[in-house]
């Protein structure tokens, strides 16, 4: 699949003096590794490609799992997004926990037309908590914990007549499972709301890095109600970017925290190519109900053990 790429225009500082005047962080590029989790067909690939290219492309090969690299500017910060678009209908077992550990920020996605995909998000959030804390999960870990940047996104809001999950439910649920932000969007209809998702995730990540726990007591900021959207879109420019596409072959890279590196980067400035793939294996093992329940039991047990050893 090819996607047309926009022109890359990178701001350049002409001299060290200018660089200094414009702020000490002007050259520093922060890298944020994002994983997008969700059931099949909720719109994960559409979201990623829409953000990078501004275009909505109807159909994607459902057998791909891909890392995209995308450089942009958010609130005057140079940010490199590494986005792992996962495969939602995977049948084979994979190392979900390793992938989650690789990531710094998380997008949990459901379709407002599919209640099952909505309910799956609780399980995914649990797995994020579980994997990131390396099994030191307390009984309340599924909820409350807001110290990881996790955004809940309800997609396909344009399909009004097929809606199965209300906005209010999504918002409430987002708070209950400990997300830092909630968005209800239509990837098809609004590029701005898509941009908002990524930019707010970056902001949450940055706040939590500066001050862990800073978002704990806050309600998730809901940013995608139509009347609020305009106010929350960042003034930063998304015009300046580079696009790269990586194959996510290097599973070891994910384990060690190394970003699997780009193989076919920026196709001569002409487009992104979703390269051939590893198969669409990802997280189904742990998303299956029985495995999930086992994980929950393990977590409760380890929590009980740590409580008794504290006493
Ligand atoms: N109406 C509508 N359709 C959408 C929207 N976003 C995505 N779709 C459609 O939903 C279908 C699935 O989109 P994908 O992006 O392939 O979904 P995915 O979550 O990546 O699916 P998997 O690759 O199977 O995990 C496609 O036909 C898209 O065109 C949206 O906002 N509105």
Automatic annotation (TrEMBL):
Stored SUPFAM superfamilies: P-loop containing nucleoside triphosphate hydrolases
Biased composition (Low complexity): 1-12
InterPro entries, per database record: P-loop_NTPase (IPR027417), Ras-related_GTPase (IPR051065), Small_GTP-bd (IPR005225), Small_GTPase (IPR001806)
Record keyword Hydrolase present: yes
Any one GO MF annotation of this record: GTP binding
EC category: hydrolase
PANTHER family referenced in this protein's UniProt entry, alphabetically: RAS-LIKE FAMILY MEMBER 11
Official protein name in the record: small monomeric GTPase
Annotated organism of origin: Lingula anatina (Brachiopod)
């Amino acid at each position: 699949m090819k996607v047309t790429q926009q022109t890359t225009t990178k701001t350049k500082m002409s001299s060290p003096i200018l660089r200094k005047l414009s702020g000490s962080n002007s050259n520093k590029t922060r890298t944020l590794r994002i994983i997008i989790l969700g059931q099949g067909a909720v719109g994960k690939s559409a979201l990623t490609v829409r953000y990078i290219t501004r275009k909505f492309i109807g159909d994607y090969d459902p057998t791909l799992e891909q890392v995209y690299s995308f450089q942009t500017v958010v609130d005057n910060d140079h940010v490199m997004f590494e986005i792992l678009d996962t495969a939602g209908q995977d049948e084979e077992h994979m190392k979900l926990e390793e992938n989650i550990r690789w990531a710094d920020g998380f997008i949990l996605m459901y379709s407002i037309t599919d209640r099952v995909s909505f309910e799956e998000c609780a399980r995914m959030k649990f797995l994020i908590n579980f994997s990131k804390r390396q099994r030191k999960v307390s009984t309340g870990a599924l909820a409350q914990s807001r110290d990881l940047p996790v955004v809940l996104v309800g997609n396909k809001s344009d399909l009004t007549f097929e809606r199965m999950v209300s906005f209010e439910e999504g918002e409430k649920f987002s708070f209950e499972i400990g997300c830092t932000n909630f968005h209800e969007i239509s990837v098809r209809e609004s590029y701005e709301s898509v941009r908002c998702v990524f930019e707010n995730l970056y902001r949450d990540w940055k706040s939590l890095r500066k001050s862990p726990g800073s978002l704990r007591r806050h309600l998730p900021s809901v940013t995608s109600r139509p009347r609020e959207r305009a106010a929350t879109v960042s003034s930063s420019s998304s015009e300046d970017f580079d696009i790269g596409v990586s194959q996510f072959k290097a599973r070891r890279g994910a384990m060690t925290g190394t970003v699997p590196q780009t193989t076919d980067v920026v196709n001569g400035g002409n487009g992104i190519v979703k390269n051939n793939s590893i198969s669409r294996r990802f997280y189904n093992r742990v998303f299956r109900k029985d495995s999930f329940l086992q994980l929950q039991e393990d977590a409760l047990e380890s929590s009980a053990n740590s409580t008794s050893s504290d006493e």
